[in-house]
Amino acid sequence: MFKSLLISALFVLSSHVIAATATNIAESAEQVSPLLPGLTVPNVELKDQYGKTVSLAERFKEKTTVLIVYRGGWCPYCSKQLASVQKIEKELASLDAQLIAVSPDSPEKLAETKITAPSYQLLSDDSLTLAQTLGLAFYLDDKTAKIYRNKLGVNFVSLEGEPKVALPVPAVFVIDTNGLVHFQYANPNYKVRLTEDLLLAAVKSVSEQ
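and the corresponding structure tokens:
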């Protein structure tokens, strides 16, 4: 269950400051409440690696979407997951599905990625707007937050003068052209990720409807 925080927050990135509002950030990864199958993803506008605004609702209209939410390019488990999913890109394309991967990384950080593919788009959710909308955002405990902030350079929020690190729980959604969620996988244990076989089965199920 979420503890709604109706207060202004400040997300400080390595190169710039972004004003944001924290409304749906859980106190721990175990307390998040991910958007369930059968619900529609509200429209959120994000930035690509070039700083161009992208409407998720418009992208969803194009074809079945595999939406991957990951912690950032600094996370080795996330990098491994993105590389693994890229290996089944042709199979997903044969099912008329596209890949969209979203993280708190800034557009500048996304520009440094080595992932380049016509049907695989990386987007920046550096204010955690989408993560909160999908019910995935949470605060790290102080000890872990300090390590992440000092060694990995992830963004943090300042709440009443107290710096706290907020991240999304890694998740995968399969979404149809109406923005409806048909499949969802989210695991508070960031080391455990969805297998490619299960993802393909989920996408195939949507494509056959």
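(Above: one complete record from the training split.) The mean pLDDT is 83.
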